[in-house]
Write a structure and sequence with these properties.
With about 375 residues, the chain is an alpha+beta fold. The chain is built from 8 helices and 21 strands. It binds (6S)-5,6,7,8-tetrahydrofolate (THG).
Length: about 375
């Protein structure tokens, strides 16, 4: 593929200088911003992520900030997850849906105070929807995108590296909780979360000016831990069953089709604009759902369009993410599968660009 032309529309991040110096080999575009995808190779990055610690420029996980007396009411309008029990200091993974129950985004919600939230968005322009709802309902809330850029520290040695910068108290942060820590006189939120299952943190860097100082501090403090620049890793995230909005799901899918029913409390999420539509969906249940799939044969190419899942001449689903897994010694994949074929161990074929290969819906093989 040709190179990508830099421009103002394709935003750099506060960490881009560090990412370039570290030898980033490829980017994708996410929320109109650069997101690194490869440093050494996807496989070498994967091995290192699972054995050491990496610093990830995930500034493209932009924050939609809600501030004001109606912030809580607006948050509940956006999601079928019941937010009444959410306390300041908590992060919630939140399916967000439109009035038909279609997925608009799957962000992490961060509750800073009763009247202040961040929605840490996946790749869709959620800000416009949130502003439209607030305007349409005349809500007393300010909505904007603050100068906040997440920096993730992921891998088995993440606790040790973070303790060297923020002190041993970071070790006590519980999963999907955050606490405020001081860096260069600035108070910043540090959460135990991140887009991998290797453990780690996300630092919500408040102010682009402290981006490179923090990046450099982490790299210097972790030299003996073999800390490296890294990025969300395709192989690891498929093995871990972490979904990618725009790839594995779109506005065409309900949270239940995405397997996100466990993050919905539609009965009690009063105020959610998609509530009536989802209550109807729940009655019968979904007729297709996201499943882990193992694809036989050699390493598959990149999945840049859905690959049909076939039973003979009939299409019964599609693969939307796939990669060769060195640890499982097979191709691991995520796909949307019709209910007639979604039981574990169902044999199917997948139509790759270079021909048809055997595959199976799996369970307990690579998603825990
Ligand atoms: N962190 C932050 N913002 C983000 C992401 C992130 N925005 C974009 C994207 N990632 C949003 N998507 C996800 C998908 C999965 C998870 C988080 C964000 C995730 N899921 C765990 C799981 O499914 O097992 C845990 C969910 C839970 O138990 O609550 O972590 O990564 N800031």
């Amino acid at each position: 593929m040709a190179l990508i032309s830099p421009s103002r529309r394709l935003r750099r991040t506060p960490f881009s200088d560090g990412v370039e110096a570290a030898g980033c080999k490829a980017y994708t575009v996410y929320n109109h911003m650069l997101l690194p995808t490869v440093f050494r190779s996807v496989e070498e990055d994967y091995r290192h992520l699972k054995s050491a610690v990496q610093v990830w420029d995930v500034a493209c996980e932009r924050q939609v900030e809600l501030r004001g007396p109606d912030a809580g009411r607006l948050m509940q309008m956006l999601t079928p997850r019941d937010l009444r029990g959410m306390l300041p200091g908590q992060c919630f993974y939140l399916p967000m849906v439109d009035e038909t129950g279609g997925m608009l985004n799957d962000p992490v919600g961060v509750k800073l105070a009763d009247d202040r939230y961040w929605i840490s968005i996946a790749d869709s322009d959620l800000l416009f929807w949130v502003k439209g709802i607030a305007y349409g309902y005349r809500l007393d809330v300010l909505i904007d995108e603050p100068d906040v850029s997440p920096l993730a520290v992921q891998g088995p040695l993440a606790d040790d590296l973070m303790a060297r910068i923020f002190g041993d108290q970071v070790r006590d942060i519980r999963f999907f909780r955050f606490r405020m820590f001081d860096f260069m006189g600035r108070s910043i939120a540090v959460a135990r979360s991140g887009y991998s299952k290797q453990g780690g943190f996300e630092i919500y860097v408040d102010g682009a000016d402290i981006g490179m100082p923090l990046w450099n501090a982490l790299m210097e403090a972790g030299a003996d831990l073999d800390v490296r620049a890294g990025c969300p890793n395709l192989i690891e995230r498929i093995e871990s069953g972490l979904l990618s909005y725009g790839n594995d799901m779109t506005r065409d899918n309900t949270p239940h089709e995405c397997g996100l029913g466990r993050f919905c409390n539609t009965q009690t999420a009063v105020g959610c604009v998609g509530r009536d539509a989802l209550l109807r969906v729940i009655k019968d249940g979904p007729t297709r759902q996201i499943r882990p799939i193992a694809i036989e044969g050699d390493a598959v190419p990149g999945c840049d369009r859905p690959w049909p899942i076939m039973d003979g001449d009939y299409q019964v689903g599609q693969v939307t993410s796939a990669a060769w897994s060195p640890d499982y010694e097979t191709n691991v994949a995520i796909g949307m599968v019709r209910m007639t074929h979604w039981e574990p161990f169902t044999d199917v074929d997948v139509l790759l660009p270079n021909g048809e290969v055997r595959a199976a819906v799996v369970h307990g093989v690579f998603w825990n």
